[in-house]
């Protein structure tokens, strides 16, 4: 397929069809007739060798191939518009855009409700595709499959940009009426900590946490009974057992309020960790991208 042989208007029609998921609504959005949009869909199916939209019990739904194309096509159109009219101001109230955010379960729970609330008020037509951050998140951004990564960062590629959002520390979540706490007047001693079973939250499914590394330096180890990648399951386990879980303090305090749990300092000294937002060089000067990341940074700093 040669780009010179493609009618680029079809990309505009593809964006409308995938956004509206209806030939009739896409035609109305583009101010063309329904037969004209149906013809565009037929041409897209021939061009892509894919149905693009298929009828289901829940209405017209995009195929996996179409879903994969939606963000690159939508962003390419936005970049073309920005290049043709570089002095046009970005209007969040009327802007239409899909952003993909790669984020950990913890960071999403803390940040995304606030971001969605702000977008609902300020930019109601901007949509978010929120996905779990995996080990290839940096590659996903470089391939144009995602806009932002929200996570803890080590060393990022030189062509990436980042800003810090907030800092946090690990805290221990435990039942308020845990027998070991009752016996020690509510104090979580190192001896008590090591004598109990633990839940370990690990994004990779293997490995140890900073607590375990600190304990190992002292020749100590805790008894880990459950490993999970999720932040919601551990609170239920702790609330219904004598297990302990260490997790970021911000989410620990939120969970404790709803289940009658205690939030205590770990019996080992641990440093703060930092959550940041990162993005690639290709999106750095995009006006819509800049507006959203600046709002996310402001929201995080106001809240935390």
Q: Which percent bin holds the helix content? A: 40-55%
What's the number of extended β-strand segments?
Answer: 12
Order of helices and strands: HHHEEHEHEHEEEHHEHEHEHEEH
Q: CA-to-CA gap between the ends?
A: 50 Å
Question: Could you characterize what this model shows?
Answer:
The protein has 304 residues and is α/β, with parallel strands linked by helices. It contains twelve helices and twelve strands. The strands form three sheets. It has a five-stranded mixed beta sheet with strand order 4-3-5-12-6, sandwiched between helices. The protein has a five-stranded mixed beta sheet with strand order 9-8-10-7-11. Helix 9 links the parallel strand 8 and strand 9. Helix 2 crosses helix 3. The model has no long low-confidence stretch (mean pLDDT 88).
Key features of this structure:
304 residues, alpha/beta, 5-stranded mixed β-sheet, 12 helices, 44% helix, elongated
What is the secondary structure topology, with strand pairs?
Layout: H1 9-20, H2 23-30, H3 34-48, E1 53-56, E2 59-62, H4 64-84, E3 97-103, H5 105-122, E4 126-132, H6 137-142, E5 148-151, E6 160-168, E7 170-175, H7 179-183, H8 190-195, E8 197-201, H9 210-217, E9 223-228, H10 233-239, E10 244-248, H11 249-259, E11 261-264, E12 273-280, H12 287-303
Parallel strand pairs: 3-4, 3-5, 8-9, 8-10
Antiparallel strand pairs: 1-2, 5-12, 6-12, 7-10, 7-11
Helix pairs in contact: 1-2, 1-3, 1-4, 2-3, 5-12
Quick structural gist:
This protein has 304 residues and is an alpha/beta fold.
């Amino acid at each position: 397929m040669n780009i010179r042989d493609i009618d680029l208007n079809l990309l505009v029609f593809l964006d409308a069809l995938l956004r509206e998921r209806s030939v009739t609504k896409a035609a109305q959005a583009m101010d063309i007739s329904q037969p004209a949009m149906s013809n565009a869909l037929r041409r897209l199916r021939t061009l892509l060798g894919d149905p693009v939209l298929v009828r289901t019990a829940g209405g017209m739904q995009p195929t996996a191939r179409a879903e994969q194309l939606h963000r690159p096509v939508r962003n390419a159109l936005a970049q073309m518009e920005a290049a043709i009219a570089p002095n046009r101001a970005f209007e969040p109230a009327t802007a239409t855009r899909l952003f993909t955010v790669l984020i950990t379960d913890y960071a999403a729970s803390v940040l995304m409700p606030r971001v969605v609330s702000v977008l609902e008020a300020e930019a109601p037509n901007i949509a978010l595709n929120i996905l779990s951050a995996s080990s290839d998140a940096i590659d996903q951004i470089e391939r144009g499959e995602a806009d932002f990564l929200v996570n803890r960062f080590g060393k990022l590629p030189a062509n990436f940009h980042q800003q810090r959002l907030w800092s946090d520390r690990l805290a221990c979540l435990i039942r308020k009426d845990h027998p070991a706490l009752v016996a020690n007047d509510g104090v979580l001693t190192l001896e008590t900590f090591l004598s109990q079973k633990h839940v370990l939250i690990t994004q990779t499914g293997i490995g140890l946490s900073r607590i375990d590394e600190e304990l190992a330096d002292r020749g100590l180890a805790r008894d880990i009974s459950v490993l999970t990648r999720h932040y919601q399951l551990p609170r239920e386990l702790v609330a219904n057992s004598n297990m302990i879980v260490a997790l970021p303090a911000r989410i620990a305090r939120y969970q404790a309020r709803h289940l009658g749990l205690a939030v205590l300092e770990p019996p080992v000294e641990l440093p703060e960790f930092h959550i940041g937002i990162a993005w690639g060089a290709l999106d750095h000067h995009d006006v819509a991208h800049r507006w959203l990341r600046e709002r996310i940074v402001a929201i995080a700093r106001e809240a935390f």
